[in-house]
Amino acid sequence: MSKYLLIMRGTDESNAAMMADIEELMARTHRFIEETVKAGVLLAAEGLDDPGQGVVVDFSGETPVVTDGPYGETKELFGGFFLLDVASKEEAVEWAKRVPAAPGSKIEIRRVPGSDEVPQVGE
What we know:
By secondary structure, this protein is α+β, with helices and mostly antiparallel strands. The protein has three helices and six strands, in the order βααββββαβ.
């Protein structure tokens, strides 16, 4: 089994569409979470607060620069995630296709490497 992170990405437009029918979307999301729990693949799932409440620490210069949100140049925002433990990327894709999402949203799928795959200090 491998861990895969399903990253929910939205735009201002898709987020507005989501908020227009938030109760239905939350009910569908709850059902999706129940399905992943029943299948034994869900490790974690979280949504994120309004991006206007966040900050960015930018390491582009000599010293880190902290900027409060909202992020004027961002076209897609990370809105939350599902962390699944599944047999393959293909299985992660099949679960991602079932995530309740507003039109215009995207789900990015990234494998989480195991600790044995990450270079250790001193190697």
